[in-house]
Amino acid sequence: MQKVFANATEALDGLLEDGMLIAAGGFGLCGIPELLLDAIKAAGTKDLTFASNNAGVDDFGIGILLQTKQVKKMMSSYVGENAEFMRQYLSGELELEFNPQGTLAERMRAGGAGIPGFYTQTGVGTVIAEGKDVKSWNGKDYILEEGIFADLSIVKAWKADETGNAIFRKTARNFNVPAAKCGKVCVLEVEEIVPTGSLDPDAIHLPGIYVNRIIQGDHEKRIEQRTTRPREEA
Amino acid sequence: MQKVFANATEALDGLLEDGMLIAAGGFGLCGIPELLLDAIKAAGTKDLTFASNNAGVDDFGIGILLQTKQVKKMMSSYVGENAEFMRQYLSGELELEFNPQGTLAERMRAGGAGIPGFYTQTGVGTVIAEGKDVKSWNGKDYILEEGIFADLSIVKAWKADETGNAIFRKTARNFNVPAAKCGKVCVLEVEEIVPTGSLDPDAIHLPGIYVNRIIQGDHEKRIEQRTTRPREEA
Amino acid sequence: MAWDRNQMAARAAQELEDGMYVNLGIGIPTLVANYVGDKDITLQSENGMLGMGPFPIEGDEDADLINAGKQTITELDRTAYFDSAESFAMIRGGKIAAAILGAMEVAENGDLANWMIPGKLVKGMGGAMDLVAGVGRVIVVMDHANKHGESKLLKECTLPLTGKGVVDRIITNFGVLDVVEGGLKIVEVADGVTEDELRAATEATIVN
Amino acid sequence: MAWDRNQMAARAAQELEDGMYVNLGIGIPTLVANYVGDKDITLQSENGMLGMGPFPIEGDEDADLINAGKQTITELDRTAYFDSAESFAMIRGGKIAAAILGAMEVAENGDLANWMIPGKLVKGMGGAMDLVAGVGRVIVVMDHANKHGESKLLKECTLPLTGKGVVDRIITNFGVLDVVEGGLKIVEVADGVTEDELRAATEATIVN
User: Fold this and answer.
1) What is the pLDDT of residues D137-187, one digit of tens each?
2) Among D169, D200, D201, D165, which Cα is nearest to D184's?
3) How many Å apart are CA C152 and CA D9, to the nearest integer?
4) CA distances from D51 to B215, C25, D137 (A)
5) Whole-prediction pTM value?
6) Would the pLDDT of A120 be above 70?
7) Within chain B, where are the H helices?
8) Rounded CA gap, C66 and C49, in Å?
9) Chain B residues within an 8 Å CB radius of A105
């Protein structure tokens, strides 16, 4: 079973459809599937809904698909870094469904785990609870949140073997793991494909069963907020 | 904050109470908290309820606490290897709540994640569904299962650092991770405590935040079914 | 006449396709691994492993490496380990393409009973209920009749269920049957068995 | 008169005890890390890290290592990384002893508003709703009054809530107040502020 594809365009061949729901990994610009987003832009697929914690910036991340107006709706927790996003949202061109960050992560995890709904205290008494089922345990209210079942997952890891077993590096893991699990099909981009057997089987973050197609490529890995200490402090 | 204790008895000091609910890791006899079970036997704590996939064998694992009649109730998925268990169960001395294995694991994971209930298709149309809330998504029924919130977690890992960051070896990980997370207090036994900083931070299976007390000791690691190929096949 | 255990396992192995992730139950299903040949099949063991290898060479047993039947096993170059919550997340989430399981009874509507005989010692369902509820395709491999010669393919199950309407295909010593609208459909008859013999041995409704 | 940002952060740091796992919000809460001294505190960053270290030395920035404010940071010897689902599992599960957060408004019943001003640009709640619902203790650090000189400690919040009845303690430039039955209770008055000044600057009911 060949999972390795030559490039992002080939890896997405036959998988893109107007109006589909895509779960994307990444937090801010950290660990985002840069190459797959570029290929979706090139493919011109329209009316996309993205389940993604953030919406990128104007010229990087999902922001590049906002500029081409390929996105109909975002399911996100924080979209503050993106002027084009705000313009489209305020003009009514773009739908927005805010999710508390942990609820969004858990909804993806639940979808991947075959769990259509779960109860959480997050958002009780806020606008997030409006219209949602409520149930009490020990006198406390919890709201019902639903699993996200995406048509496609696009995620980015550090390394993967040819069977799709993948590892992430530092905080670039973030939403990539739950996003990968909740799609009918998952396409993974990595910095390096390594021979099967070269990753420690005890240290796999995303088992290959979740990964349908893999590509390798160069990543820009842009830094959003470069904060440092002066060298003399060291 | 000192998490390392000298031995299992000291690590459990002040934590044991008659009638408490204990979540225990392990699958069969693989990865079970041998040292902590011995210490609970020595402490003589009574009327215990265990959330544990299995009940050990007559003279190893939770079986040793059945012999001393310290266990009131088991929440398990498979208890077939234990004659004393069957004797007590059939005589009405021992309560038994069967959980499908994945439901048990998810109930522990949910308890640790602050999720009091979740819906699953597992068990729909079977005795497991009796008395449980049902909800439909896309024409399919799902039953409501509840998170397990244990008073104490006892688990076994391979190595941990002094802050409790722990790693497991091969299939000995099993229920140890979800069991560790669902207790108010978690005591961890390991084969080796290593200096903080010596484990790869990308490869931690159980972050130290889940671990309150740690002990190191020698483990028997008994094999339940020794199955092999003859050497000449190699 | 009829298939033996190994022939049933070999027939079940034909159900598996390149690239599949598969869970094999204990008993005859375990033998299926011997017949996958060149196909790229990855075996899941629900205690926390993908890429299950064969039994270890004598002396190489590792107490930390067992399968869901608690037998010592080995790893492969593709192996990944994970915890039980993650293992059943992938099962419940439909990532396992097929499970091949034994059964005590199967009903013509796909109901499966394979975990409990009331009045006998009760061992528990283990992961069977999760598997039949979650995997893509449930294939049952079992003898066509019980030791009293009675059909195990029934109009209705008499034993407590493992899952309702979950079975897709049944492979017995007499042949292969699919669960379809209205009953079971004969897909294949075993060597040395006639279709009439198969029908006569089956309590469940057989549809054409 | 009154505390400055750093004094407020230093006062907030006194809330932290040895062994605590803590989440710090952006703004003044971030400064709290500078005042923990010898205490054994482990900082969680909700994008997937326990054991957050300081900003990197110039030139050592790593695009794969950021905090929840998207700033480059470093790791410590105790650091563990995990995914976002796991990160919020530990937050929702009550494993984080305390969160120190900024606020736009706090009400006397512990309601907190810190994510949205209707009619202004809406950025989103990020992880704030999960934090206030899940952590053991919610400590708010904020100016006592807004830029118009109006109290931010209110009888009722006017802005959309982040959480209902979630705040335990409020640290402002004027002092420290706890949310108790019936209103807020003064715990401490800032240097150079009188209790009368604090009361006068507070819309919320103050109870004794």
Assistant:
1) 999 999 999 999 999 999 999 999 999 999 999 999 999 999 999 999 999
2) D169
3) 72
4) 22, 42, 19
5) 0.98
6) yes
7) 8-12, 34-43, 63-67, 83-90, 101-112, 176-181
8) 9
9) none
The ipTM (two decimal places) reads 0.97
Which residue is catalytic, options D15, D17, D46, D86? D46
Q: What is the pLDDT of residue A234?
A: 52
**Closest CA relative to residue B170, chosen from A194, C62, C107:** C62
Q: What percent of chain A has pLDDT over 70?
A: 99
Token pair of A230 as six digits: 């002066």
Strand partners, B136: B141
Contacts of B156 (CB under 8 A, 6+ apart): B25, B26, B31, B32, B33, B34, B35, B36, B172, B176, B188, B189, B190, B219
Q: Please name the residues between 6 and 25 in chain B that touch chain D, using a CB distance below 8 Å.
A: none
Task: Chain D: give the shortest CA distance to residue B205, in Å.
Answer: 9
Task: Please name which of B167, B190, B153 lies closest in space to residue B35, comparing C-alpha atoms.
Answer: B190
**Which candidate, B103, A165, B115, places its Cα nearest to that of C85?**
B103
Instruction: Judge whether A53 and D84 are in contact, CB under 8 Å.
Output: yes
Name the stretches of chain C with pLDDT < 50: none
Could you list the active site residues of C?
46
B91-100 long-range contacts, Cβ below 8 Å, gap at least 24?
A: B93/B69, B94/B66, B97/B73, B98/B128, B98/C122, B98/C124, B98/C125, B99/B75, B99/B128, B100/B128, B100/C125, B100/C127, B100/C128, B100/C129, B100/C130
**At C185, which amino acid appears?**
K
What is the SS3 assignment for A51? strand
Structure tokens at D97: 């002893």
Domain boundaries, chain B: 8-117+149-216
D75, D81, D89 member nearest B113 (Cβ)? D89
Class of the A8-117+149-216 domain? alpha beta
Q: How far apart are CA A75 and CA A67, in angstroms?
A: 18
Q: Which residues of B40-54 are buried (b: 16+ CB within 10 A; e: fewer)?
A: beeeebbebbbbbbb
What domains can you pick out in chain C, each with its CATH number?
A: 5-207 (3.40.1080.10)
For B182, the closest chain D residue by CA position comes to D93
Partners of D57 in the β-ladder:
A229
The minimum CA-CA distance between C103 and chain B, rounded to whole Å, is: 15
What are the residues whose beta carbons fall under 8 Å from the beta carbon of C162, sequence distance 6 or more? B126, C112, C113, C114, C115, C125, C128, C129, C132
Torsion of CA A48, D83, B103, B8, to 10 degrees: 180
Do D40 and D18 touch, CB atoms closer than 8 A? yes
**b/e map of A45-79 (b: 16 or more CB within 10 Å)?**
bbebbbbbbbbbbbebbbbbbbeeebbebbbbbbb
Residue D36: how many CA atoms within 13 Å on its side-chain side?
A: 21
Query: Do D172 and D188 meet the contact criterion of CB atoms below 8 Å apart?
Result: no
